[in-house]
Amino acid sequence: MNPHLIASSLPVSDETHLQRVEYQFEHATIIEINKCAIGLLKVHRQANNMEQIQIQVAPSYQGNGIGTRILNDLIKEAGMQR
């Protein structure tokens, strides 16, 4: 994740990594495939809206459409809330 953070001009210390993980952690869900944790999703759902806060997919699972599938599911869910 460091290259992405550096490209975004964000700090990459252990402390800032922990802050990002802890931010809105009460809205976190572990992403699993076959009972294996492969990522983290944070979505704050409210009565009339939702906010996608963070999505992380382990590097070994990236490039397989997992993040895209999750985001598409969130878009569909948001559409149903209207």
UniProtKB/TrEMBL annotation:
Protein name according to UniProt: N-acetyltransferase domain-containing protein
Q: Note the InterPro entries from the entry.
A: Acyl_CoA_acyltransferase (IPR016181), GNAT_dom (IPR000182)
Extract the GO molecular function terms from the UniProt entry. Answer: acyltransferase activity, transferring groups other than amino-acyl groups
What positions does the domain N-acetyltransferase occupy? 15-78
Q: Which domain of life is it from?
A: Bacteria
Stretches that traverse the bilayer: none
